[in-house]
Amino acid sequence: MSVRIRLLGGVEVLIGRRAVDLGHPRQQCVLVALLADRDACVTAEQLLERVWGEAPPRGGRSTLYSYLSRLRQALEGSDEARIERRGGGYAVDVDPMAVDLYRFARWTGEARTAEPSRARLLLEQAVALRRGTLLPRIDTPWLNELRTRLDERHRTAEADLMDLRLDCGEHTEVLGDLQRLVTGHPLDEGPAGRFMLALYRSGRQADALEHYERTRRELAEQLGVEPGPELRRLHLRILAADPALEAPRTESAPVAAAPPSAEPGFVVPRQLPLPPDRFTAREAELERLGPRRGEGARPVLAVTGAGGMGKTWLALRWAYDNLDSFPDGQLFVNLKGFDPSEPPIRPQTALRGFLEALGVAPHAVPTDLHGQTGLYRSLTAAKRILVVLDNAHDTEQVLPLLPGGLGCTALVTSRRRLPGLVVAHGAHVLTLGALSGEDSARLFGSHLGHPRPEAERAATDRLLALCGGMPLAIGVLAARAADRPELALSALAEDLGRVRNTLDAFGAGDGDTTADVRAVLTSSYRTFGGPAQRLFRLLGAHPGPDVSLAAAAALVGEPVPDVRPVVAELARAHLLTEDRPGRYTLHDLVRAHALELVAGDADRDGAFDRLVDHYLHTALACDSLLNVHQDTPPLPPPQPGSGPWRPADERAAHAWFAAEYPVLGTLVQQAGGTRSGAGSGIRPGAPTWQLASTLSTFLGRGARWHDVLAVFEAALDAATAAGDRAEQARAHRELGCATMELGRHDEALAHLEESVRLCRALGRPEAEGHAELHLGYLWEVRGDQERALRHDLLALDLFDTAGDGICRARALNAAGWDYAQLGRYAEAADTCRRALDYHREVGDHRGEANALDSIGFALQGLGRYPEAADCYERALVINRTIGHRSNEAQNLEHLGDAHHAAGHVADARAAWQEAAEVQTDLTHRLDDVARLAAKIRDCVPA
Fold it and tell me: Does position 505 have pLDDT exceeding 50, yes or no?
């Protein structure tokens, strides 16, 4: 039975899944002393010194032999680990990879020469092995030295991993880990420097400088020395804001998306935007919203009123004040009920976002509104969750989004009164009107500081009269006044009066505000320099819902460092809001003003083309890391100023897609209108299908099949309109894959056969081979393995003809799997080993995992169960690392099958149970869960 030995923390030996009793700590120390040096023979004298130090007890040798005897007995349950006499001493005969200490050494050693993405994978696995301090109650010189050595090696591995993550632009994400390191080792200048750099790159220059001073004081007080030259140089570069300290090529790197959950079940969502930085003049309204608990609490609250009245501001303040009432999480969605450039969000779209936030896998989301609503209310029925539905268009949009259960609260904001919510759900509605003169003055003073408005009371009253009690207008106006402290408020009032007019058609239909919003926005706009004015105008060309710093730079065609202060200027003026670090939104009234301005900008079309180029070339670079089988045609060079970003590794690429997908999905629908004139190098509609093709791997890996349908239906329409049969073939292939995964097999067959027909007519063997591979999988799913093999072998021939070795390896593995399913195990193992060699050679981790799983299945068929289990476990490690949970479930099920065939019933049940938990979390095909449940129920020795 397999054995696992853990020394990097509490000493443990697992035989199968059973923990072995190793006795008291001193006896455990004997095992540590034997294993500390790989392949070493340890004499009795050395063991005595290592375990007891310089003063072993009387009769120490007899005690040692007794401990050795007990340890031998403890290991008898496995034939893979034995204590042997060897060359005048003792040694443990065990596979090195069964000992975490040796695995740590191997992985960290390989990481030193590996390429960055592989090195990161190895270091993350190595660092995760550490579980605590080794035998903390045993005090001998040898063990103390060993613990020190292990601590240093672990810290070195952590430092190398932090460097790789910083190189990937993950400066915000590593702050927590680095904080822990500098707290635990305040005199270590290595973590201190990394922490300072991460703080600086996260926009916290003052905190970085403060940490340097703290470290300098600690070194002076504890050691009587100054920081070393490297830390001093970093300090000076941070003081000087050295541009070279910017994250390398990662200005557009988004906040890293959280990796797929490692555990099935309910996920606690935390979706609220950042809280308001100040709250003034709406205290009475906040009180009127009522308590969350106790008498007067309501399950549905609604805040209504005209645009710019502070509805979202009030809702978020209430939400943050009541967080402790909602321990199971908070959901938030901007329903865009009155967005000037986009239609309102469909309830189905919002529900899919909520369900995924609650831990439902994308492909497990029901396809119809009724099914989505039922699942959503089932998941929230026994929870205490706050659901904030911001900027709702009408009652019909809101009703499907109301959660289930009395423990939840829905907080809705809208420009309409939503009487249906009162009638159907007893909603408590609070309507916000204009602020009184007194409250307007208080809000203006909280933004600006009280002495100045009080000193110019008459001018302040004139300004506030123009704002009409609208908090949005007051905030924008106050920001302008704060930015020009030398400007008299009377001069500002005169300037505002000269441009006064009305921003049209932004009301809710229930009466409009008296505020002159366009006058306020125009007056602020006129105070900006040329770069800020240009950026604000061109933001009207961005599709939303939010914009990254790099995308803003592409709009104006300038480098990110030059655009960063311009974005900051707009944010200070309250025209941009940083809802998440590095991502900015515009209030819909502000966006309406930007749209008015950009309509007359001669660079509008050029800005949109640069934006599309930025997203297209960045998406292609990210996709090339996620998919080594990528067959996207090469693109023309990016336009000057589009500033595409190149990710460092797979994780950075996935994080970018996760952050930008809401923009990309909208852009696919709009990109058909980009440059396609003579000499542009771009064919009509090409950006639509090009963007769609780059999204295929990201969406497929996340099993977001509904999104695949939406994206490639748009791509197919664009390719059909342009008469591009090659892109029609690609779109049909992707649509065939998505409909197959959704269980719509007849549609899938029609799409894939059409793709094959088009590719054959065009003479494109490689593209035809991809479609044939999908047909092979479709026929396997439909239960015809012979037919699946024919398609996979045809794909292999087509890739041979095309000379594509990477895709040939994929086809080899598919054919090998078919052989195994047909009982031709030796042929299957040989075929899949050839695929494995090539996948490893090119660094295709997903292909490597698939090949290992197929080899394991073949070895299992040949009765070589331990080897099969080892293959499955190695595939499992890879799939967990890259976040491919459906393949993880398959690996676990196969591992359970191998254990069961070998007669290891407990191990089989444990693996199947884990597979069932993953499938329950993921799948919409309930037969998978039922099959696993039957295996667990009927599990008996084979």
Answer: no
